[in-house]
TrEMBL record:
UniProt source species: Pseudogracilibacillus auburnensis
Enzyme Commission (EC) number: 3.6.1.-
Function: One of several proteins that assist in the late maturation steps of the functional core of the 30S ribosomal subunit. Helps release RbfA from mature subunits. May play a role in the assembly of ribosomal proteins into the subunit. Circularly permuted GTPase that catalyzes slow GTP hydrolysis, GTPase activity is stimulated by the 30S ribosomal subunit.
Pfam families xref list: RsgA_GTPase, RsgA_N
Record key words, sorted: Cytoplasm, GTP-binding, Hydrolase, Metal-binding, Nucleotide-binding, Ribosome biogenesis, RNA-binding, rRNA-binding, Zinc
Assembly, per entry: Monomer. Associates with 30S ribosomal subunit, binds 16S rRNA.
Chain residues that bind Zn(2+): C247, C252, H254, C260
One Gene Ontology term of the molecular function aspect: GTP binding
The family this protein is said to belong to: Belongs to the TRAFAC class YlqF/YawG GTPase family. RsgA subfamily.
Protein's name in the database: Small ribosomal subunit biogenesis GTPase RsgA
Length: 293
């Protein structure tokens, strides 16, 4: 028996890295019977059958997992947005942040295409950058054609398992190529009619950057919160979480309730209006979600 980590899943095979060797493994039928799907990032025990091949026998308990992309045991996330082409969306950024915060994944925000932005867009983006930094997030605003800021991002990857997240066309693949030119990942063009990029990443696999493993994931532009409860949502907005215990009601949703510490902080300018508006929008999505039986 050998131990290893799944670094790629493709066409029914799970590629497991063990002591610098990669084995193409199949999953045992017992996983299907238990409705368990091995994920990229899983730590597994496998039996080697032939040279470079094997069968996965056991999957270790996961510390976290994402459904889309399907990946497990993540330390941190780099959430990539662009200032233009496609235009920056604070709403979409907050969706990503809520999802990673809910999984206890440490996020870093990277805003790309500074070189393509107008003066007005740069000023607006700088304001957003300062706002997210005030909340406590690391934020880098950069040009993908420049090395400036790349070293800070590269250090973030060191010895960690990282997932790269963001909608299509924001420059995730270009960013990875800049951090490790040996990767030569195919990058897509922007569809001007749709205002978003073409998907260039078809499956999830780990890439090596600065002694860390990075999952380049398929781009997407919509996210929902299928597992989230309404009363838990504010815990995933960092600046609201700090004030939850100061509300009059223990299960306060920070919407219509009186003596709400979060609403007071919004009125006082301590919480950004747009962040609170996004919270209310997500809250309504969760409340109006059809119950699943």
């Amino acid at each position: 028996m050998k131990e290893g980590r799944i670094i790629k899943a493709l066409s029914g095979f799970y590629y497991v890295k063990s002591n610098h060797t990669i084995y193409a493994c199949k999953g045992r039928g017992v996983f299907r019977n238990q409705k368990i799907t091995p994920l990229v990032g899983d730590l597994v025990i496998f039996e080697q059958t032939n040279d470079g091949e094997g069968y996965i026998k056991e999957i270790d308990a996961r510390k976290n997992e994402l459904q889309r992309p399907p990946i497990a045991n993540i330390d941190q996330a780099v959430v990539v947005s662009s200032v233009c082409q496609p235009s920056f969306s604070a709403l979409l950024l907050d969706r990503f942040l809520v999802i990673v915060e809910a999984k206890k994944i440490k996020p870093m925000i990277v805003i790309t295409k500074k070189d393509l932005a107008s003066i007005e867009e740069v000023e607006e983006m700088t304001s957003y950058k300062q706002a997210y930094e005030k909340i406590g997030y690391k934020v880098e605003f950069l040009s993908l054609q420049s090395s400036q800021g790349m070293e800070k991002i590269k250090q973030f990857f060191q010895d960690k398992i990282t997932v790269l997240m963001g909608q299509s066309g924001v420059g995730k693949s270009t960013l990875l190529n800049a951090l490790n030119p040996e990767l030569s990942i195919k990058t897509g063009e922007i569809s001007h009619s749709l205002g978003r990029g073409k998907h260039t990443t078809r499956h999830v696999e780990f890439l090596q950057i600065n002694n860390g493993l990075v999952a380049d994931t398929p781009g997407f532009s919509s996210l929902d919160f299928p597992e989230m409860e309404a009363e838990d949502l504010s815990a995933y907005f960092v600046e609201m979480n700090k004030r939850r215990d100061a509300c009059k009601f223990r299960r306060c949703l920070h919407d219509q309730e009186p003596q709400c510490a979060v609403k007071k902080a919004v009125e006082n300018g301590e919480i950004n209006n747009y962040r609170y508006e996004h919270y209310l929008q997500f809250l309504q999505e969760i409340i109006s979600r059809k119950p699943r039986y």
